[in-house]
Write a structure and sequence with these properties.
By secondary structure, this protein is of the alpha+beta class. It has seven helices and six strands; from the N terminus they run αββββαββααααα. Helix 2 (about 65-75) packs across helix 5 (about 155-165). The chain is elongated.
Length: about 220
């Protein structure tokens, strides 16, 4: 009999990614998938797993990865861009159409057929409810208020807000926001705000982000 261990958890995750790929998601790494939508906006998929003595829980998150936003602020901070980081995401259970779905909890005792059916069910949920939600927020206009709602969490959200405003062409607002937030959270925000404000003063992002959107 299989044990409920790290190897079993990895097996479950790989089956989830196999099922997502079968639904049409792009598998850009062995353990990463997304769905390119338009103009550098991707439906982002996050599978958080919990390993317990008797089971593996799969907690599905879904949202948007906006390539121009993420490339802009990571470049200014001197960090490596990653396609696997969400710009904004929520737990699938928060979405209409998914709230009534049972949680995905898999055990070594369950048959391969049952495990496969559960991973397919999860993948189908992403391909329907998840994609619909991602499409509904796949624009700077839709993302901005969502990002603003998480400013107090820090965690990259202030950088995302400033970058979003900039990419919308609202540069004066982006400047005012960056200056105000820097005054309140200098230790946290300085690494981004200083080069961002310098970029605004110079009027040059050094490389047109439209060229980067699909990378």
């Amino acid at each position: 009999m299989r044990r409920c261990d790290a190897a079993f958890k990895k097996e479950i995750l790989l089956k989830c990614y196999d099922a997502l790929e079968s639904e049409g998601f792009t598998r850009y790494r062995k353990e990463d998938v997304d769905w390119p939508l338009h103009d550098g906006f991707h439906c982002w998929v996050g599978l958080n797993t919990g390993l317990h003595p008797d089971r593996v829980n799969v907690n599905p998150f879904v949202g948007i990865h906006a390539v121009p936003i993420m490339r802009l602020y990571t470049k200014l901070e001197g960090r490596t861009y990653s396609r696997s980081v969400a710009t904004y995401a929520v737990h699938m259970g928060e979405l209409a159409g998914a709230r009534e779905e049972r949680a995905t909890a898999l055990t070594p005792e369950q048959s391969d057929g049952f495990v496969t059916s559960e991973t397919r069910r999860l993948a189908r949920l992403y391909a329907t409810v998840g994609l619909d939600y991602a499409r509904s927020i796949a624009s700077y206009e839709a993302l901005l208020p969502l990002l603003q709602g998480r400013l107090d969490m820090l965690g990259g959200y202030p950088e995302r807000v400033a970058s979003c405003l900039y990419l919308m062409g609202r540069k004066a607002e982006a400047k005012a926001f960056a200056e105000e937030f820097l005054a309140k959270q200098r230790e946290y925000f300085e690494a981004f705000a200083v080069p961002f404000l310098r970029m605004l003063a110079n009027g040059d992002a050094s490389e047109p982000l439209s060229r980067q959107a699909g990378r």
